Amino acid sequence: MAGCIQVGDLRINVLPKTDTPDENGGGQFLLNLLRYAGYLKRTHIAGSADVQTSMRDPLEAVISEVAAEMTQGLLGGIPKRYELRQENSLSPRGRIDFGLLSRLLPGRANLPISHSPLSVDNVLAQCIKALAIVLQRITRSEKSRQAFAAVLLQLASVRSIRPTIAMIDGISLSRYETHWTRSLAIARLVLAGNAPDPTHSGRSAAFSILFPLHHLFERSLRRLISEAMEGSGTTMDHKGEPLHLYEDPETSQGILRLRPDYLFTKEGECIAVADAKWKRATEDGKANGIDREDLYQIHAYLTRFNVQRAVILLPTAPWMGAGWKKTIKVMGGPQTVTLLSTDIIGLIDHTAAIREPARAVFRKDLVELIQTT
Fold first, then answer.
1. What does the pLDDT look like over 249-259, one tens digit per residue?
2. What is the reported pTM?
3. Per-residue b or e along 232-259, where b marks 16 or more CB atoms closer than 10 Å to that residue's CB
């Protein structure tokens, strides 16, 4: 985990461990990870003297961009949606609830109806407002605080609620609402961090927003792999149709869904699978410290997707050389699994002199592994 824990006026930044002597290495690496994972859009330099103090803090960097995104998103007004309502009405509209109507006493003039009017007081606007309330309270940037105040003023007609993770996951954004994708992702992380109730500001002084490093690693590699495979004739898909390992013959329902992090296809045929694992490999051991559960999972992918090659992408350890990889074979079969060192720090570095050589090595190794017959 990496991110921030705040108790009262005390803020603790939880930074990923790096093997560099730079004292700002962990903070800069987290900023780069957040950018490549899609939580930041701009490049932020940790500890630089020519940027605002708030930009040196990974959490403040995220908050500032969310504030700007909300301000921009509301320029066209509060998002309107058709929301289902159930109420009593003097005139028939929408759908009459005949079941409830049959149980009413004679003489009642109101009709129980359900309808879906276009409203600004909808679940999307409510989640945006809840996030703005929380972030306004915890930010240390006066600029961000003022931005959230303007946002909340514009959302005054929207009810204040405490959304749930299920509520956020249930929101399906239209093509006109995709600019709220990142705000909803941040809201989900806030809820996962047990943030205080946004409808009762001030009752709790504790707050946390933590990003699982495996999640950031997998999302960052998603973008890097797509760029590495350009022009190779092979494409990467992370949203492929999931397959199930078993089936219930009585119901024909799938059991134990399999969804690799990355599927590689060539001419419409799946040729390889890959998974990202945020864990340190060891120099010794038969499988360099990879958990047996991970190897079982990869074997299931090989079998069910009917491919010969699988890759496990690992962060580079200090003992590994540039482009380190190790291939093991499935006993009695032609399938192979390759552990591939991934210099994630170099791959997402903001300095081209560091970033480009790391990407050249990564591109060469990955393309060769995936396209080997």
1. 888 888 888 88
2. 0.71
3. bebebebebeebeeeeeeeeeeeeeebe
